[in-house]
Amino acid sequence: MVQLDNDCFAFGGPMMAVEPALALLAGRVGPVTATEIVPLSDALGRVLAADLVAPFNVPPHDNAAVDGYAVFFDDLSADGASVLPVTARVAAGQWLGRPAVRGEAVRIFTGAPMPPGMDTVFMQEDCRSDGATVTLPAGIRRGVNRRLAGEDVREGSVVLAAGRRLRPEDIALAASLGHAVLEVRCRLRVAVFSTGDELRQPSQVLEPGAVYDANRFALIALLTRLGCAVTDLGILPDRFETIRDALAEAAASHDALITSGGMSTGEEDHVKPAVEANGRLDFWRLAIKPGRPVALGRVRGAVFVGLPGNPVAVVVTFLRIARPILLRLMGAADEAPRAIPVRAAFAHKKKPGRREFLRGSLARGEDGALVASKYPRDGAGVLSSLVESEGLIELPEDLAGVEPGMTVDFLPFKEFL
């Protein structure tokens, strides 16, 4: 299963900054250890469990980069065009079948092995041939249009490191090395549920005071994009015993449990005591907006992550807090999103001492530089702000406000997913 340190954070203590919280988490959560063998066709998005070492050079031999004529560079005239007899033809997948001879030219095609000793290839467009001979222009450099053996991958080198989430190009590289299967980490098993008597499934009729459950579907989609095996536990009523029993049952067959809402200390907030009844809750209040109430704990061996209840806060804290935890559980290498420094096209007041995430989009200014605009409404329940934005504008703790023209960090949503 997973590893999580027993130390806890004091509930209600000073709010913790984002970076120290993430650094602390990195030392307290270890990866799921189970692995499996999957075919290349099923490897996309999976986490590689062991280094992939090249068993041979790629390409395995020197080969032609273009269609043309292979020659010995030293056979070429230094003063003008050279005329050489065309003595053989080599296509991709063929060999010359004999040692190359000085003074000859070999008709060759892209990808075909270079005749041993020949070191230069003329493009066919630059040559004139009557079939028996070829006229080669002056001015070519030694070794041009020749791909060297091992130019792409050297034998014995680590081409894909353990912990890499496999992309299409990674799978192509593995195939080029003859691997039909790969050893990957088993998918992280994550259970998701919502709590709240006011929540309804999208297909149900809304009574007065009820709302549709959007958070659960957002989390399921985010987890699926991350490569997790997700179990939807649905909506649980605001009943301590129901939530307690559901957590215990889910923990027996999952690596992580994720909820949204119910993490405060009100009379109808039962998630916190339900978690503590089954294990322990390591809880802190993050100095972050939106999304201050975030919880980390363990329920009978499964990692528990409790996110805020507002939809925007759920997405922001998942991307910035839950995602690094889950990647570590998956055994994946660090995939911290890369911020783009851009110019602000807005003014914004901010409370110092907490990190703030605004929703925004990018455009080109008159000078061609990237400029970030802020979505006009900041509320943590404004779900449309995520739909109509391209990413997050991240404002650090020590910043007191933004003025037009200032440089700010922009995190595109695609950097997280």
TrEMBL record:
Cofactor(s) needed for function: Mg(2+)
Classification via PROSITE patterns: MOCF_BIOSYNTHESIS_2
InterPro entries: MoaB/Mog-like_dom_sf, MoaB/Mog_dom, MoCF_biosynth_CS, MoeA-like, MoeA_C_domain_IV, MoeA_C_domain_IV_sf, MoeA_linker/N, MoeA_linker/N_sf
GO molecular function (one): metal ion binding
Any one Gene Ontology cellular component term annotated for this protein: cytosol
Domain MoaB/Mog intervals: 191-328
Record field: catalytic activity: adenylyl-molybdopterin + molybdate = Mo-molybdopterin + AMP + H(+)
Domain of life, per lineage: Bacteria
Its EC number(s): 2.10.1.1
GO biological process: Mo-molybdopterin cofactor biosynthetic process
Enzyme type, top EC level: transferase
Record-linked Pfam families: MoCF_biosynth (PF00994), MoeA_C (PF03454), MoeA_N (PF03453)
UniProt pathway: Cofactor biosynthesis; molybdopterin biosynthesis
UniProt keyword list: Magnesium, Metal-binding, Molybdenum, Molybdenum cofactor biosynthesis, Transferase
Function: Catalyzes the insertion of molybdate into adenylated molybdopterin with the concomitant release of AMP.
The family this protein is said to belong to: Belongs to the MoeA family.
PANTHER family registered for this protein in UniProt: GEPHYRIN, MOLYBDOPTERIN BIOSYNTHESIS PROTEIN
Protein name stated in the entry: Molybdopterin molybdenumtransferase
Species name: Azospirillum oryzae
